Structure formats: structure tokens, C-alpha cells
Amino acid sequence: MSYNDLRHFADSWGLVFMGMTYLILIGWHFLPKGRERSAEAALAIFEQEEADHG
Q1: Residue-level pLDDT, tens digit, the chain, 54 residues
Q2: Is 9 in contact with 3 (CB distance < 8 Å)?
Q3: Cα–Cα separations (whole angstroms), residue 17 to 1, 36, 51
Q4: Is the pTM of this model over 0.70?
């Protein structure tokens, strides 16, 4: 396989693959479970840690 063949593949199917991956990852957050997990993750930094500081 030459450089031009690899470049042509990346320009066509590579772009399709990256676009589909992007849409799937963004769409994942709009599912019911995804919304719950996103909300939990957004508020996680505000939760108090209950660690024993000795």
C-alpha cells in the first residue's frame, strides 16, 4: 500500500469513522441513563469526601 492509497482511505473512510464516532459519543449523553450519569459527574466535585484525616 502506498502513501497515496493510505491518504485516500483516511480522507474517505477515516472521515466517516470519526464522524460516526463523534455522533455516537455526543448522542450517548441524550439517552435517559446518559443524562443521569452526566448530571452526577457534573456535581461530583461538589460532594464532600468522608475520609478520616487521622
Answers
A1: 899 988 888 888 888 999 999 999 898 888 888 888 888 888 998 887 665 555
A2: no
A3: 20, 27, 44
A4: no
